[in-house]
Amino acid sequence: MAALSSPGILDLWERGMSLHPLDRALLALSVADPSSAAGVADWPLGRRNRALLDLQASWFGPRMEGWTSCPACSEKVEFELDARELAMAASPATPEDVVLVGTYAFRLPTSRDLAHVVALDDSEPAISLLDRCRTTSLDHPEWTDDLLDAVEDRLASADPLAETRLALSCPACQREWEDTVDIGRFLWAEVESRARRVLWELHTLASAYGWSESESLALSDTRRAMYLEMVHG
Questions:
Q1: CA-CA distance, 196 to 13, in Å (whole number)?
Q2: Extents of the domains making up the chain
Q3: pTM above 0.85, yes or no
Q4: Beta carbons of 171 and 77 less than 8 angstroms apart
């Protein structure tokens, strides 16, 4: 998959600014592959996240650098991931479409399911999500902690890339904990950062040469970079 052009970055960023993070991730996937736009919301989350990691690697490179705050002392804790390695490591040996736990069957959650639960603003989103994904119509389950844990474990085994959790350690207070990496948000942060950089480049060239946005964007990235170097030199 080819890198996204500067005009493409700006168009994607502008279209996604007002969207929910879930929809931003789906928009990015539809831009990368317009033929998938109609069905991407119904992909299992692992398939969606794998595609987002492919976009990360193709558009911005596989290196993913981020940080979070220690929950104990608020120290900044940095981490680094490799998008390609993460996608390969989380691929299940035998993909499953449906998982069974006792007498209950569940399909893998999708982005559409997450959007439905977010819209509910439910106090128990995990149970609402599992109820929505349950394919057995009879015998509504009594959601004990044991059953909830069992279903979540089976779904995680069937679709390990649906959620990415990192084991982290604080260098300041030695607190150890796990945190979730939202791959869609991570990719969008890259899109926004790149878009702002392109806009600053356009502003600089307009200030120096009086060029319009379209005139500057018509330049190749290499030529635009050379003009910027001359401006700053």
A1: 9
A2: 6-91+168-196, 98-158
A3: yes
A4: yes
